[in-house]
Amino acid sequence: MGLLSGDTLGPLAVAVLIFLLLLDLMHRRSRWAPRYPPGPTPLLVLGNLLQVDFEDPRLSFNQLRRRFGNVFSLQQVWTPVVVLNGLAAVREALVYRSQDTSDRPPQAIYEHLGFGPRAEGVILARYGKAWREQRRFSLSTLRNFGLGKKSLEQWVTEEASCLCAAFADQAGHPFSPMELLNKAVSNVIASLTFGCRFEYKDPRIVKLLDVMEDGLKEEMKIVRQVVEAVPMLLRIPGLAAKLIRGQKVFMTLIDELITEQKMTRDPTQPPRHLTDAFLDEVKEAKGNPESSFNDENLRMVVADLFSAGMVTTSTTLAWALLLMILHPDVQRRVQQEIDEVIGKVRRPEMGDQALMPFTVAVVHEVQRFADIAPLGVPHMTSRDIEVQGFHIPKGTTLITNLSSVLKDETVWEKPFCFHPEHFLDAQGRFVKQEAFIPFSAGRRACLGEPLARMELFLFFTSLLQHFSFSVPAGQPRPSDHGVFAFLVTPPPYQLCAVPH
Ligand code: HEM
Ligand SMILES: *[C@@H]1O[C@H](CO)[C@@H](O)[C@H](O)[C@H]1NC(C)=O
Q: How far is CA 5 from the centre of its chain?
């Protein structure tokens, strides 16, 4: 107790304060570099953490953008952050400066999930050989997915039929489509990674979705922001385990599924799916300690594909159905096009897109309007760069505001309305838009884009081929204001699916 008596406490407090001030000054150096982007003055130690409301950062960020412009800086505790807004700044950083902006900020907490130098997965992998190797592997597996007996398009088409059957089981009663959409979409990733699908009642898929949701909630907690900024805190015994409890259970489920595939692998047969193909690479890489093909990384890659490919796609589909019940005229025009091009019997195919400009425009507009990943995934500079004339030092976290591009008022006629004509010319032909970047852009852009587009088109057209969707009688019309949380989800709603 003597140590903390009155006369030592004073000097000790002063010493701690001076130490913190110095440490803080050290971390602010970058702010004084010439042409560093402007931003609010950070508080001692906390930086701008308290000035931004992380539950719904949109309001506070909007004020900052109005005050400081399209490129502004923040400090998350001791991490320098630069936020990029608008097509010009985002494109300059992600596309023209791609080789210097494709790193990811390190996130120490994932070491507790198995993230390590040889097991970085894809999404959070640092910009380097392991990332390049795995990105290439995932992309080529997606592309050559004639691996097993069925092509990926066949898997999606069959899943769409199962989804339609499950919608029909609702017998026209009001229901929320979210859960079924989640199951259908996770079955597509399961078919890619494990060559299997789960019945919608299978307890394993129910559990998978449950823990996935827990994991997403964990990602959003403000404590996570704090420990990411001050990884030292993770030394507190038990803290890391507590913050990622759901994510750990999720990894255990993935481990079980991988083990199952290992047990049924017949090495004399060609690979059945991504896991088999990966295990072949592991065998090939035996004795090469540099390789990112190893058992620890297999679970990271598979987990990444599930977490990046599932909720994103199902949330977009939930938006699509919501927007159809809110805009019955658009729904009718899509159905008319389906009638003309596909008819009532044949299953939709990707090839139909060429003849269905209106439907393709609607799917694009759903993605633009829903704007589900408004801030994308953070990048980090791996070298000093310039963006829009501002100097951004190496090691700065970049937040790319995809939303500011998808809703850029200088590009879109009606940025804040659902307006499929954004993607149609006067003759009703589909037109590409440069500012359409829901999958981000550059070297780190979403690698699942082709699969996501396939799912969006095939699920959407299959559902509208079989059902008309409407707001349940007597229920209020749901709003189209998203719920902001990591991913922007539609407001909870119910619909009626009436066969036609
Ligand atoms: C509508 C659906 C989807 C949307 C809107 C979406 C959006 C995104 C965005 C914004 C990023 C961040 C890019 C960046 O860092 O700049 C991303 C990354 C990624 N996505 Fe998607 N995605 C979707 C579906 C999928 C699917 C189906 C898969 C898997 C098959 C997938 C796999 C990935 C992976 C692995 C990454 C990390 C890429 C890397 O770091 O190199 N995504 N996605
Ligand atoms: C991103 O852009 C949107 C739309 O322009 C804006 O409302 C939001 O505040 C911006 N967020 C950030 C982080 O700058």
A: 52
Q: Is the dihedral of CA 85, 90, 92, 94 positive or negative?
A: positive
Distance 373 CA to ligand 1 centre (A): 10
CA dist., res. 293 & res. 291, Å (int): 5
For residue 315, the one-letter residue type is T
In angstroms, rounded to a whole number, what is the distance separating the alpha carbons of residues 421 and 329? 13
- Give the three-state DSSP class for 92: helix
Q: Whose CA is closest to 50, among 75, 21, 13, 17?
A: 75
CATH code (residue 53)? 1.10.630.10
> Are the CB atoms for 492 and 179 separated by under 8 Å?
no
For residue 462, is it within any domain? yes
440 in contact with ligand 1, CB cutoff 6 A: yes
Of 159, 119, 147, 487, which is closest to residue 304 (Cα–Cα)?
Answer: 119
| Six token digits for residue 481 | 């204001």
Q: Quick: pLDDT tens for 424-457.
A: 999 999 999 999 999 999 999 999 999 999 999 9
Burial 70-79 (b: 16+ CB within 10 A, else e): bbbbbbbbbb
452: domain range?
Answer: 33-477
Query: Does residue 446 have a known ligand-binding role?
Result: yes
Ligand in closest contact with the CA of 302: 1
Is 496 part of a structural domain of the chain?
A: no
The CB density around residue 6, as the number of other CB atoms within 10 Å, is 6
Q: Report the nearest-CA residue for atom 6 of ligand 2.
A: 62
pLDDT at site 54: 59
Tally the domains of the chain.
Answer: 1
Q: Which residues approach ligand 2 with their CB closer than 6 A?
A: 58, 61-62, 65, 83, 85, 401, 403-404, 407
User: pLDDT tens across 14-70, in order?
Assistant: 888 888 778 777 777 667 778 999 988 877 666 676 566 656 666 678 888 999 999
Does 317 fall in a domain?
A: yes
The two three-digit tokens of residue 436, written as one number: 């359409």
Best residue among 51, 59, 65 to mutate for probing ligand 2, ranked by most atoms within 8 Å of CB: 65
Ligand 2: centre distance to CA 115 (Å): 31
Distance 145 CA to ligand 2 centre (A): 38
12 lies in some domain: no
